Amino acid sequence: MIIYFSATGNCKYLATRIGKEFNQEIFSMVDFMREAKFDFQDDEIGIISPTYNWGLPSLVKDFLEKIDVRAKYLYFISTYGTTPGASDVMAKRALSGIKINAFYSVKMADTWTPIFDLSTEEKVEKFTKKTEKEIDSLIERIRNREENEKMSPRMPSFLVDLFAQPLYNSWTRKTSNFHVEDTCIGCGLCQRKCPIAAIKLVNERPVWVKEKCIACLGCLHRCPKFSIQYGKHTKKHGQYTNPHVRV
Fold it and tell me: Mind listing the pLDDT tens digit for each residue in 109-126?
């Protein structure tokens, strides 16, 4: 089985590719969190997560801290745009004593558009030109049940602990960074898709009802009118969802 968290489709696409290759079912981590399902047993289990601020999204960290996993082969994959950071170290800590047999990473489009520009296909391709080859290689490594002890590439964990993750939790996740433009049509997609129910529709306009969210930007990238923005730069940097899957 393969468990993934995906806001814009990258991790879902990766899970789909691996699942098809090995005839394994794929499951959304968000669904398991909503169902409070945390006990998993299988011959082989894969966990797939995007990299946020050189570490794990808050939902992934919470999920890993709750689960009990029993598998002959347990692997963890980080998708990333610039670096998977110390996501392997964070996964080890969150699983607390559960052995992860292997760590893998795949470079995909970095959907953190407050910084990265995905406004054209050419700019997306700077991230994705080697993605398919990396996935093909990854599948063979899983087939061979490779074992290793750390992610490659990676960042020193002390930098993530001292800088990146504190920034993520204290500022990046603040919902006050979002705003809604007048082009909003009140469709409610953002409310329905928010993985932690941080958005409610009030008078046909999205309102963030929690002080913090995951900062997955799923609402921004999925918005049919691109009405949701985060900070000052997302408008010019465009929207992105993985073209191979529905999210």
Answer: 999 999 999 999 999 999
Residue type, 93: R
Which is nearest to 15 in space by CA: 58, 39, 47?
47
In this structure, are residues 4 and 26 in contact, taking their beta carbons and an 8 Å threshold? yes
Query: CA 204, 208, 213, 215 torsion: positive or negative?
Result: positive
Name the pLDDT band for 201 (thresholds 50, 70, 90).
Answer: very high
Instruction: Check: CB of residue 66 under 8 Å from CB of residue 35.
Output: no
- In 3D space, the residue among 81, 90, 76, 99 whose CA is nearest the CA of residue 157 turns out to be 90
Q: What is the mean pLDDT of residues 75-99?
A: 97
Structure confidence at residue 237 (pLDDT):
98
Quote the distance between the C-alpha of residue 15 and its chain's center: 12
Entry pTM: 0.97
Largest Cα separation within the chain, whole Å, is 54
